[in-house]
Structure prediction request, 534 residues.
Amino acid sequence: MVGMAAAVQSPAASTGSARPPRLLSQTGLYATEDERLAIDPENRPFSPQYPLWSDGARKSRWVRLPAGATIDARDIDRWDFPVGTRFWKEFTFGDRKVETRFLRKDGPASWTFASYAWNEAQTDAELAPEDGLPNVAEIAPGKRHSIPAVEDCRACHDSARTEILGFTALQLSSDRDPLAPHAELLAPGMLTLKTLTDERLLAPVRPELVEAPPRIAAPDERTRAVLGYLSTNCGACHNAESSLASLGLLLKARLQPSHGSPHDPVRTLFRPTSKWQIPQAPDGASAFVTPGAPDLSALLVRMRSRRPSTQMPPLGTMLHDREAIDLVTGWIQDLRTSPES
Amino acid sequence: MTRQRLAIPFLVLTLTLVSSILLRAGGPAEPAATGSKAAAIERGKYLVNFGSCNDCHTPWKLGPKGPEPDMTRALTGHPAEMKVSPSPTLEGSWGIAAANTMTAWTGPWGVSFTANLTPDKETGLGDWTEEMFIQTMRTGRHQGKGRAILPPMPWFSVNALSDEDIKAVFAYLQSLPPVHNRVPAPIDPPEGQ
Prediction:
């Protein structure tokens, strides 16, 4: 197993400047700054158990910690990464790399967000403008992928409390959810809670995360998969710490009891919506989830929509997630009461 | 009232006016809301009135001198009981139209209805936070994170205000009497448009 070692510093990174490099090849992702595009072995691949839906893109992810540094894991739900940590996520549609997103921690509460658009020759990717790049690649007939604006990145990776959505104790747990939509196989060499513990990259080491791997508390396997999907795809905004907390929809799965009950997501789903009403539903009949009634479940109605004013999530996707829609539809259809009652 | 259609030039003129008013009103030297909450509310009221928020967020009626905002329904948004007829067919130079109340607009984005800005918890800004309001004006996204805010809301002009001034606007709106008025969700344009 390759350990974490000193980063290959691009000029921008070495000076601690918040300005991202112009080319992806200058961010330290590759072993050399040429066209061979061999991933630097110091950059470690990982795969979250509940991946974010990105219109069917095949995604590859890597992380790099500064040499000798560890992740502050005292708070199981919000790891604090050392300054200098870098993350990459590469999006491939079909056989073409389209976009690579890059996050770099520049200070105790400061991250750089950047997206790189791949060139036609697939030899490197260039920094996208801060307000994004529309229509960079066709992903379905008449639909083209757009690179998001930095502000859109920050909408999910909340500004001061930046969380790496795919690199958490729950996402890297070895107790992986077999029903998770779009679940990816763990490839050899990928970081998990076990490898992080074995290599003493968490502080404190927390062997209990290996002995009793974290999992979402749920009454059955399908509910577990639904809550995991909602946690990743909705919980980045709909959680107790977000500016949207007042809406009362708390879908982020939390492991630490002081961060709320593990039943919070279920509790908050079975209540009327605050404002958004299901079109054609009787007045007052719009709930986030109505047991046995998918068409009266606002959450599903909005998941099924890809109209700009209705769809959820509101950004980062323009194609339906059929696998997740089927999972959630079946779950709601078979519910007779809230799983808690 | 006979005005059923508004030309793009009128819209542009309106938005330009709103923008310039807000930009001028938000001058950096103004000690906005630095004092008491009452001062912030007063500053917010000034910005809201000067910034033409009533032009769209207060339904218009036909008064003795012609069309005017119905201030008995100030800032309550599109009236829930007013069901709009299908959008008119707009051709040639005509691309945008407004309802008689100025609270429903149709254009290439579909149909948008102006929001209830009073602090009613179910239908207005009662469950909004100051941070959410600022983020909305900074990002142009509903509640700071959601769908894009639709025309004709000139959020990009409000974005020119300082945080203190946006907070003052929010403080004023929160000081209004809450009015229960459930504004319809926007209507998307037909597929393919």
